[in-house]
Amino acid sequence: MSRVTIPLGPQHPALKEPANFSITVAGEKILSTSSRLGYNHRGMEKACEERTYIQDMYLLERICGICSHSHSTAFVQTVEEIAGLDVPRRALYIRTLIGELERIHSHLLWLGVAGHEIGFDTLLMYSWRDREVVMDLLALLCGNRVNYGINTIGGVRRDITAEQIAGALRDMDILEERTRYYIDIATSEPSFIARLAGVGYISREDAVRLQAVGPTGRGSNVAIDIRATDPYAAYGEVDFKVITDSHCDVYGRAVVRLLELMESYRIVRQVLKEMPDGPVTVKAPRKIPAGEAVSRVEAPRGEDVHYVKGNGSDKPERVRVRASTMANIQAVNKMMENNNLADVPIIIAAIDPCFSCTDRCVRVIGGKREDLGWRDLRRHGISWYRKHWGIDFGELNRKLHSLRGER
Amino acid sequence: MKIPGKMAKEVLRHSLKPPATLNYPYVKPEMPDNFRGKIVFDPVRCIGCRMCVKDCPALAIEIAAVGDKKFEARFYLDRCIYCAQCVDSCPKDALLNTKEYELAQIDRQNHRITFHAHADGVVVDPAP
Ligand code: SF4
Ligand code: SF4
Predict the structure, then answer these.
(1) Is B15 on the interface with A (CB under 8 A)?
(2) CATH number given to A44-339
(3) What residue of A is the nearest CA neighbor of B98?
(4) Rounded CA gap, A231 and A243, in Å?
(5) With an 8 Å Cβ cutoff, is A129 touching chain B?
(6) What is the rounded average pLDDT of the residues A199-206?
(7) Is the predicted pLDDT of residue A364 greater than 70, yes or no?
(8) Phi then psi for A203, rounded to 5 degrees?
(9) Residue A360 pLDDT
(10) Ligand nearest to the CA of B80
(11) What is the spatial distance between Cα A286 and Cα A190, in angstroms, rounded to a whole number?
């Protein structure tokens, strides 16, 4: 049968964010795939160098709307390490609590998206309705449903009251009961199992070789979980299991996420019950000493890595972020092999991708390497667009300025 | 063979229940007390230290001196990301969160609000 290469994206109804997959098929069978990112580059790392540490915290929190707490935790941890701050234990417990609530809302969101991708919209409706419980709880504890803004350098910004703890425990009971129901559906509804079993297979060896992280790796029996292997915040003091599954397919990844929800409820309960008393912040200096640090956080999608280099001023010299989708995207190409074209949406959705979080790499084309400063990079961009597309940024800039009001 | 449709019972059970969604905008959700909504400014308390301006990640505040130890604040609510860092940074509690979240405007100019300093209290002037 002749081969055809089908482009999927950058704009495609099956994708929630722009990315491009070139899929080579023979009939309906996928032979190979190559993926391409880079449609959503926002220049965040560079922007961080222009802002103070406090401003960066809010900027980096907005890398991802769903893993926002993971990104801000990873960033403040690196800064605290450079500055040598001793964060109060109560603050670490609150960070753990919000981190788990974030995982709960993210996994419930994923369950709904997965249901939608396989045409099981009933699951989407009900799981998202139940997700509202945790969203409202996050708003109660942090002040908003998305972008919680709970972290600050040296601790957390808001304390948690006894009343809030009682409310959170009640919510956990509701969510746990609902999750039990979804686990029952996922393990006994024949249409759900038949649609997902065997789809997007990736063996344990391949998952390790392609460095899959988070539920994507754990769905192929790779027991990596930064919460357990390199505990941060209060994870060293709570008891939980690292969930793995040996199905190695989309079904395995679904099971891992559902069972992880149950572990998250356990962690939340422990954290709420054992929360130590005391202050929630230590005073952090505005100028962070010279030095560098790396920190890892288990985001709902997998390991999230932040690197910060300070130079003694109130602005970092370099910030580097590796979001979890960057690690998982390699595995997607492998997962696609030998599946049907119609399986593509659910295979992509099964890694729970966040493409704009991932878009921050620089590709060096050819052997020559050049370092461009901020100013040169800007000049290069302006002249490139003028030459290739005839776009004059001077005019656009003036319009933008008048729209924004003079600053 | 198992029969599909395990969720049917749940769906039928819910057909008798009221909807889970609110009939917005006729019914409005109540936000929690420490919600990070629209920021308000109290010119009487402000000492003009400009910590808020320095820490705001979105460059959404300007503080201008108008007369002796009198300051007024101009907010660009279209830029504000509602992080409330300014509220935390202010040493005099001159900035406060409110629960107001319905902030959409047809005209962008309506997002530029100035809290004028008046002897008799705050006057919000939405004109640019
Ligand atoms: S809430 Fe945040 S973005 Fe808005 S004015 Fe205050 S510091 Fe700036
Ligand atoms: S931080 Fe507070 S006191 Fe200082 S200028 Fe801003 S509003 Fe005024």
Answers:
(1) no
(2) 1.10.645.10
(3) A143
(4) 16
(5) yes
(6) 93
(7) no
(8) -70, 165
(9) 66
(10) 1
(11) 57
Half-sphere exposure of A132 (CA within 13 A, CB side): 10
Residue A42: both structure tokens together = 């926002």
Tell me, what's the pLDDT at A1?
Answer: 76
**Which residue do the tokens 């979980």 mark?**
A225
Contact A126 B59 (CB under 8 A): no
Please state, in angstroms and rounded to a whole number, the distance separating the CA atoms of residues B128 and B122. Answer: 17
d(CA B115, CA A244): 56
pTM of the model: 0.89
The domain locations on chain A are 44-339, 368-406
Q: Inform me whether the pLDDT recorded for A373 exceeds 80.
A: no
What is the ipTM, given to two decimal places? 0.89
Task: Find out whether A132 and A66 touch, Cβ atoms under 8 Å.
Answer: no
Q: Which pair of tokens denotes residue A243?
A: 């969930």
- Report CA-CA distances (Å) from A327 to A98, A216, A322: 24, 10, 8
Q: What is the pLDDT of residue B111?
A: 87
State which ligand 1 atom lies nearest to the alpha carbon of B77.
4
- Check if B59 has its Cβ closer than 6 Å to any atom of ligand 1: no
For the stretch A79-99, pLDDT in tens is 999 999 999 999 999 999 999
Beta-carbon separation of B55 and A181 below 8 A: no
Domains of chain B: 29-115 (3.30.70.3270)
Looking at all shown ligands, the one closest to residue B45's CA atom is: 2
Q: Does B104 lie at the interface with A, CB-CB under 8 angstroms? A: no
